[in-house]
Amino acid sequence: MRHRIAAVMLLLGLGLGLTTSAFADDWASYRHEGYRDRSDVWRDYRDIRHDRCDLNRDYQKLARDRWNGNWYAVEHDRRDIWNDRRDMRNDYRDVNRDRGW
């Protein structure tokens, strides 16, 4: 008899724990409605930092190629800079979309 009572209490305790965690998840998703997946936002910020580093590197290469008179490489570096700026704009747009702004 003791084992049956203990088993019923254990099942009730587990059931209560599962329902409270379900309510907590509903509350969290309601509270952060437009900002659910923060890891996506963090990845976008990391991509922005990497694009900034790439942009700085491309500016340095552009200056070096201008100094050396390598005009084909200058045009290539300009395209790289344009692509990195476009990637940064897209990442900022994605961050704003993820945060709900």
Can you give a write-up of this model?
By secondary structure, the protein is mostly helical. It is 89% helix and 0% strand. The model has no long low-confidence stretch (mean pLDDT 80). The protein is built from three helices and no strands. The termini are far apart. Helix 2 runs antiparallel to helix 3 (71-99). The protein has two domains: 1-31; 38-101.
Helical amount: over 70%
Low-confidence parts, pLDDT < 50 over ≥5 residues? Answer: none
Proportion of beta-strand residues: under 5%
* H/E topology pattern: HHH
Tell me the count of domains: 2
Report mean pLDDT, rounded to a whole number.
80
Summarize this structure as a short list of keywords or feature phrases.
2 domains; 89% helix; single chain; 3 helices; 0% strand; 101 residues; mainly alpha; rod-shaped
Offer a quick outline of the entry:
This protein has three helices and no strands.
List the helices and strands and how they pair.
Layout: H1 2-31, H2 38-68, H3 71-99
